[in-house]
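To: structure desk
From: M.T.
Subject: fold request, one chain
Message: Could you run this one when you get a chance? Sequence is below, nothing fancy, just the single chain.
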Amino acid sequence: MAQKQGLFKQGNKSALIAAIVNTIIAIIKGIAYFFTGNVAMFAETMHSLGDAANQFFVFIGSALSKKAPTDNYPNGFGRLVNLVLLGAVIIVGIMSYETIKEGYHHILHPTESTGLAINLSVLGLAVVLEAFVLYKAMKEVLHETGIKATGFGILTNSFTGLKRAKPATKLVFMEDLVATLGGIIAIIGILLSYFAELHAAEGVASIIIGLMMFYVVGRVFLDNAKGALGETDQELEEKIAEYIFTNPEIKDIQTLYAIKEGEDFHIETKLEIDPSITVAQADDIKDRIEGKLSEIKGVTDVIIEFDEDDGVQTWGNTIHGDKKNDSEEK
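Reply: Done. Structure tokens follow.
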């Protein structure tokens, strides 16, 4: 029990906060829909329910992925968060379909909904709460990627660093961005329906919200499918290579892979050194490089192999067989 509690303490905090907030929002929206029958409110209720369930899964998956390796699973459980997220998108996909279907039926058979004050009050509150969670996710993105920003820079820089954020944080960011925009779209649909008597506008808003949810499904599926397969991070590889070549004993890099293991990185590299270096010297070099790479945020495992220098430059001429040397390109 103590071990499980310790794991959950390591779960993604943004996902947990988002899950709790979205659960509260879903209940409030559901009550409002029950009394008003507003289709845009139905769409937002389904959206918040999907987000809440998704983010609870994300929190649990991110916590369990921190579990230490066992004899049966010596490589650890890092990719478990990717597998959980792949399962979680199914929930959002179902909610998206129901939202679009309900919007389509409302466009074909538009009806006048009631409870303008209730709908606008609930959606307004929801937008504020979703924007708060989105802001927290933006801050988490900046924290995870090491980007420093204040004021309006938090907004712009969070989009810049989103690609390198952890899978769980990225999902929370995208879902709450869509949720915030979806709340605004729902408000616009309700206002058009009430004041301009365009009752089909609520159905259109529902379809737009559903399509945005499907976009999140697609993005999350593709990102986590790559993570489950073990995608490499070329930006991190370049950063590591730059450090490795600051060690004069290293003549070349034969191979270098920074493989994503869920929220962490597994580093594997094969380096060429002068054949005259002794085993003891090589061991010292290995310890020094391994220690430095282990200090990089997110790196949990480093494997270094040595080979004697063959006099042929590999790194820079081809990286994973597809990246040409600058001088060669020129």
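Reply (cont.): The longest helix spans residues 116-145. Let me know if you need anything else for the meeting.
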